Amino acid sequence: MKVIKTNSDHPDFKKLSTLFDEYLVDIDGDEREFFAHYNNVQLDHVLVVYYEERAVGCGAFKKYEEDTAEIKRMFVLPEARGKGIANMILTEIQSWAIEQGFAHFILETSPKLHHAIALYTKMGYQFIPNYGQYIGVENSVCMKK
């Protein structure tokens, strides 16, 4: 596997992000536009993972508060799952964020993404009340580490 650090302008990140949005259509339903507004932002800290020369996963982070980074756009192609890629992405993102001075991490995900929640829990994240734009959104689960 190969991992590159880039930003949200990278063509492979854009492609994976579009596939992620399509994947979320069935999950977010009518709320898709609400979430797209917060997901389609410029990100300066993006990882793209390549497996056998193909972009198969991505993740990003952005500043939320002075010492807190928000994890964004975690996605692995369905056919590439089960290889530890999501775990590697999250580990690499956290390390990169720590290098940038962040000590805490928050994220939002769908309560329907059971595998994602299991990964975050395994990696030490705990459920918190929904923050920011996710307050009052029933189709959101927020976590912090």
TrEMBL record:
The organism's place on the tree of life at top rank: Bacteria
Protein EC: 2.3.1.-
Ranges for domain N-acetyltransferase: 2-145
MF (Gene Ontology): N-acetyltransferase activity
Pfam families: Acetyltransf_1
Keywords: Acyltransferase, Transferase
SUPFAM superfamilies documented for this protein: Acyl-CoA N-acyltransferases (Nat)
InterPro entries: Acyl_CoA_acyltransferase, GNAT_dom, NAT_camello-type
PANTHER family named in the record: GNAT FAMILY N-ACETYLTRANSFERASE, LD18367P
Name assigned to this protein: Probable acetyltransferase, GNAT family
Organism: Flavobacterium indicum (strain DSM 17447 / CIP 109464 / GPTSA100-9)
